[in-house]
Amino acid sequence: MTQPTAIRRVAATPPLLATALALAARTVPTLPLRAGKLPFGNCQPCANNACGGRPVMKTAGPCTCPGVCHGWAAATTDTRTLTSPAWVRAWGQAQTVAYHPGGAGLTVLDLDNTDAITWAREHLPATRTVATARGEHWIYRGAMQSANAVRPGVDIKSTMSYARWLGPGTGTMTALPDAVRALIVKQPAPAPAVGPVVGVPTSAGGGVCRHRTPAYLERGIAMAEQQITEATTGVHATVYRTFLAVLSAHGRCGCLTDAHTGRLFAAAQAKGETVRHCTEAWTNALTRLGL
Q1: Could you tell me where the DSSP H helices lie in 140-255?
Q2: pTM, 2 dp
Q3: Angle of CA points 120, 271, 143, to nearest 5°
Q4: Given pLDDT bands bounded at 50, 70 and 90, which one contains residue 230?
Q5: Which of 39, 193, 203, 222 holds its CA 20 to 30 A away from the CA of 250?
Q6: Burial class (CB within 10 angstroms; exposed 0-12, middle 13-18, buried 19+) of 78
């Protein structure tokens, strides 16, 4: 009996594809990596993001390129894409399989040496662990903003990043702890040794900035995170209203940092929002406020 086309195609594909398909079945978005642990580069039509880019962060919209373009954003769970001719060619040239942790609702703490592992064991809750060539990946349940070199030998791989698939690991996966989220929070500048705190004029509206007191901004961000986390219905609307409130209070004085935005995005993604929805909600809030 003649096999269906889709079955014949998968049966003839390179070995790494079997791993990718198994991960896709578990809703883990995957992509191939070439030599040097690097993603495949843009094809000619997508060079310099002329296509608008696969992440929905540009006015041109998502890229429809059938090839393996745009790094982490190419990661997919679509078996038709994974087994398409362009992807099968890439799998044949690939060195390993990677995945997008944030797309799977995960965060990978990449510990690159023994000192980093010792620090993690002393300060973080145990979770699922995967051995690497030089250290360990600690995998937590929950997504957050990715960041490199958050401390010596420690990188965070989650949203808008990729990690190598090195096996399922050992141990029970636990929820992403606040101690890991705190690693990307920039510490406020030390207060002046003498003299009173002076209000700083905002960039618009002529008000006085109270955010020189770090507790004021921290309290606002923490309340926004709590509001998103506690939403039980209408999550998308809640995220937008919360972003709007944060930007209304803090968006004109330059006090918000990427770390603050990352915390809000991470809270929204933990409730099931995608990076696309977060970006759209944030952009719409900025537009409404004229920022």
Answers
A1: 178-181, 214-229, 235-250
A2: 0.61
A3: 30
A4: confident
A5: 193
A6: exposed
